[in-house]
Amino acid sequence: MDLKLKLKNLRIKYNYSQENIVEVLDISVRQYQRIENGDNKPSLDVLMNLSKIYNSNLINDYLLSNDNSYLYIKKLELELKNIIFNIDIDKLKIFINKIQ
Question: How far apart are CA 97 and CA 74, in angstroms?
């Protein structure tokens, strides 16, 4: 699930209004609306605070998602290096299935 859908779903799940969220984040309602609509990317500070509000790891979800292909590829590279370094055939098979 991409970040904008996750943010909206979490906000609805916790029965928060956008106004409730921006009070904690100390940003404008319009700025938050742009983040929730996917028009703007949140700052790391905003992501950290949203993670605290929802008790969720939104930072990893956002940074390692397919939406951010560069970071996703870097994550896959690191994962592959760890598998090769440790020569774990089972993990290598899982990795290959993941990228196919």
Answer: 17
Do 74 and 54 sit in the same domain of this protein? Answer: no
Q: Name the residue type at position 30.
A: R
What band does 20 get if pLDDT is binned at 50, 70 and 90?
very high
Would you tell me the crossing angle of helices 18-25 and 29-36 to the nearest 10 degrees?
110
DSSP string, 29-98: HHHHHHHHTTSSPPPHHHHHHHHHHHTS-HHHHHHTSTTSHHHHHHHHHHHHHHHHHHT-HHHHHHHHHH
What's the whole-model pTM score?
0.61
Q: Give me the domain span that covers residue 26.
A: 3-65
Give the per-residue pLDDT at 29: 96
Q: What is the pLDDT of residue 16?
A: 96
Helix (H, G, I), strand (E, B) or coil at 12: helix
State the CATH number of the domain containing residue 45: 1.10.260.40
